[in-house]
Backbone:
């Protein structure tokens, strides 16, 4: 896995946005996988800036979000659908019919999950998937113990995740304990993965996912098996990486490597 260490959150977000912009410039009808949470906010802000100031075009883009809380409708202000509308979709020129976020209110969850998987395939598969990482090493809502071959399904959230999310809800009993999430297997089928992490509270999970053994206890460690995965991290999130200096060395010298003529 390639590791790109940035001095600031803004720099990290801008580098990740550049990956997406480069993809859209070569493939305007790309399929993007998107994440919610505090980590990608800077990335979405930068994508909005690129759209408004540099004409980055989303008119042919299709998106699939990773996950949604069960029980929250798309208009609930803590739903991931609402989050995406507020922080990205309403600021860019993506057609609404090209947006996919798992439904938290589907009556038949199993049928919905199967449809979501088939819809991804129908759209040609995900070209680039954006990921955050939980403090317990999860990607999407694939909590510790999730099968590395898992598909889109309902997951019971780990206590740590529920505690991490509690700040967004006024009453503890309102914090959802179930989510509908793409599986690790679904995520691994994306052609490119970019995982973002900032702040010290992610340092341990980042180190375990990049340098630890591949394990269902840290589902982000599955990225080690992906042929094209990049971790964009800030200094704080990189602080427990034992090979930090090596990654910086690669980062400095890789741009000068011989390229095909
Ligand atoms: C959200 C998601 C989660 C988050 C993770 C980190 O769509 O898939 O895995 O990426 O919980 O959340 P933040 O960024 O809020 O620290």
Residues:
């Amino acid at each position: 896995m390639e590791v790109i260490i940035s001095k600031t959150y803004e720099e990290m977000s801008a580098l990740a946005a550049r990956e997406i912009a480069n993809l859209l410039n070569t493939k305007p009808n790309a399929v993007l996988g998107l994440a919610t949470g505090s980590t990608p906010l800077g990335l979405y802000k930068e994508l909005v800036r690129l759209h408004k100031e540099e004409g980055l075009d989303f008119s042919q883009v299709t998106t699939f979000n990773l996950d949604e809380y069960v029980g929250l409708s798309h208009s609930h202000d803590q739903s991931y659908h609402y989050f995406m509308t507020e922080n990205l979709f309403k600021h860019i020129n993506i057609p609404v019919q090209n947006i996919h976020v798992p439904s938290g209110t589907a009556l038949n969850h199993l049928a919905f999950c199967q449809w979501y998987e088939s819809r991804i395939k129908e759209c040609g598969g995900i070209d680039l998937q954006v990921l955050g990482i939980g403090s317990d090493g999860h990607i999407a809502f694939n909590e510790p113990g999730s099968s590395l071959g898992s598909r889109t399904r309902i997951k019971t959230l780990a206590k740590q995740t529920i505690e991490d999310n509690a700040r967004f809800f006024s009453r503890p009993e309102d914090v959802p304990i179930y989510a509908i999430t793409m599986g690790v297997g679904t995520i691994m089928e994306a052609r490119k993965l970019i995982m973002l992490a900032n702040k010290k509270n992610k340092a341990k999970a980042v180190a375990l996912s990049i340098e630890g053994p591949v394990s269902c206890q840290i589902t982000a460690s599955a990225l080690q098996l992906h042929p094209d995965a990049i971790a964009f991290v800030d200094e704080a999130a990189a602080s427990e990486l034992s090979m930090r200096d090596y990654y910086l060395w690669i980062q400095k010298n890789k741009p000068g490597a011989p390229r095909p003529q």
About this structure: The mean pLDDT is 96. The chain has eight helices and ten strands. Residues 133 and 139 are 5 Å apart (CA to CA).
